[in-house]
TrEMBL record:
<dbReference type="Pfam" id="PF07736">
    <property type="entry name" value="CM_1"/>
</dbReference>
<feature type="binding site">
    <location>
        <position position="107"/>
    </location>
    <ligand>
        <name>prephenate</name>
    </ligand>
</feature>
<dbReference type="GO" id="GO:0046417">
    <property type="term" value="P:chorismate metabolic process"/>
</dbReference>
<keyword id="KW-0057">Aromatic amino acid biosynthesis</keyword>
<dbReference type="GO" id="GO:0009073">
    <property type="term" value="P:aromatic amino acid family biosynthetic process"/>
</dbReference>
<feature type="binding site">
    <location>
        <position position="5"/>
    </location>
    <ligand>
        <name>prephenate</name>
    </ligand>
</feature>
<keyword id="KW-0413">Isomerase</keyword>
<keyword id="KW-0028">Amino-acid biosynthesis</keyword>
<dbReference type="InterPro" id="IPR008243">
    <property type="entry name" value="Chorismate_mutase_AroH"/>
</dbReference>
<dbReference type="GO" id="GO:0008652">
    <property type="term" value="P:amino acid biosynthetic process"/>
</dbReference>
<dbReference type="GO" id="GO:0004106">
    <property type="term" value="F:chorismate mutase activity"/>
</dbReference>
<dbReference type="InterPro" id="IPR035959">
    <property type="entry name" value="RutC-like_sf"/>
</dbReference>
<feature type="binding site">
    <location>
        <position position="89"/>
    </location>
    <ligand>
        <name>prephenate</name>
    </ligand>
</feature>
<protein>
    <recommendedName>
        <fullName>chorismate mutase</fullName>
        <ecNumber>5.4.99.5</ecNumber>
    </recommendedName>
</protein>
């Protein structure tokens, strides 16, 4: 089993923006790591205290496939002073034979600042 990290930021605390961002993040994590619903043990989603318009887990149910059966839980991120704002983070627990160093963690928008030590894939939405 491996954990796959991901994060994305939003500009506004709205249901639409949060769900669109969370869906984009989920799709990137799944695509870059070739994850199928049956590979996923569970998903944890955290949000910073400044975004609360919707549970971002709801975005998983918008993705085509058998994602309805994947256990997912939302929680608040620890509000550390000076930390990144308006951020949605995910931890996807998957059954995989992929080596730890080959897991592709995904950081989009302002969240790229969270882990500059990790090799970042180019975000296709950014020109």
């Amino acid at each position: 089993m491996r954990g796959i990290r991901g994060a994305i930021t939003v500009k506004e605390n709205t249901e639409k923006e949060m769900l669109d961002a969370a869906e984009r993040l989920f799709k990137e994590v799944f695509s870059q790591n070739k994850v199928q619903p049956e590979d996923v043990c569970s998903i944890f989603v955290s949000v910073t205290e400044d975004i609360n318009a919707v549970f971002p887990a709801k975005a998983l149910r918008r993705i085509e496939g058998n994602w309805d059966y994947v256990p997912i839980m939302c929680m608040n991120e620890v509000p550390v002073p000076g930390s990144l704002k308006k951020c949605i983070r995910v931890m996807v627990h998957v059954n995989t034979e992929t080596a730890q160093q080959d897991i592709q963690h995904v950081y989009l928008e302002e969240a790229v600042k969270l882990r500059p030590d990790l090799k970042q894939e180019k975000d296709p939405a950014v020109n």
